[in-house]
Predict the structure.
Amino acid sequence: MRDIYNKELELLNQELTEMGELCSKAISLVSSAFESRDGSIAASAAVLDREIDRKERNIEALCIKLLLKQQPVAGDLRHISAALKMITDMERIGDQAEDIAEIIPYLGDRKAMGQEKISSMITAACGMVRDSVTAYVKQDTDLAHEVMERDDIVDGLFAEAKKELISLVAADPNNGEYALDLLMIAKYLERIGDHAVNIAEWAYYSVTGLHDKSVN
């Protein structure tokens, strides 16, 4: 019976890893679309979001099955409970990647202040999402801490991008709509970083039973 249970826990880890990879892929597509202004690439993020939603439902069903049929002990219960919380954050990451993708076609070919910071935010957020899921699967509390700390980088880039975009509008009010689109993209990326931190915190909890917010 325990062998079957262990296999189901391994399946849970595999499914979570795949969901995390889908989220990372969605952000990577957004990155490519943002750099190239290619609307067809951006549209692919919507397809991935639907895959992420399906994966969320599959993982939720697996977790409920484990809870109802296997009656997990404390450590396994934390692991399963954390997974249920994490998939909510991952689903939101997929939604926000799609939200960014919907804005990109309106940017046209313009390049302006704030773009470099946003590109850096995309790279940082993608790494945080990937590593937060890895921290859970590998039960790596040090990596979970590292992800939490890297949120300061994303927040700092957001503040810098916002400042540059305000300057862009101040120099020419006609840039207002374009700057607002870029600011929305930056805000979605900042939220993706926050979701990655939530995942890392649940990864930490799954090992220790504690919610560690000391590095936030």
The chain has one domain: 2-208. The chain has a mean pLDDT of 90.
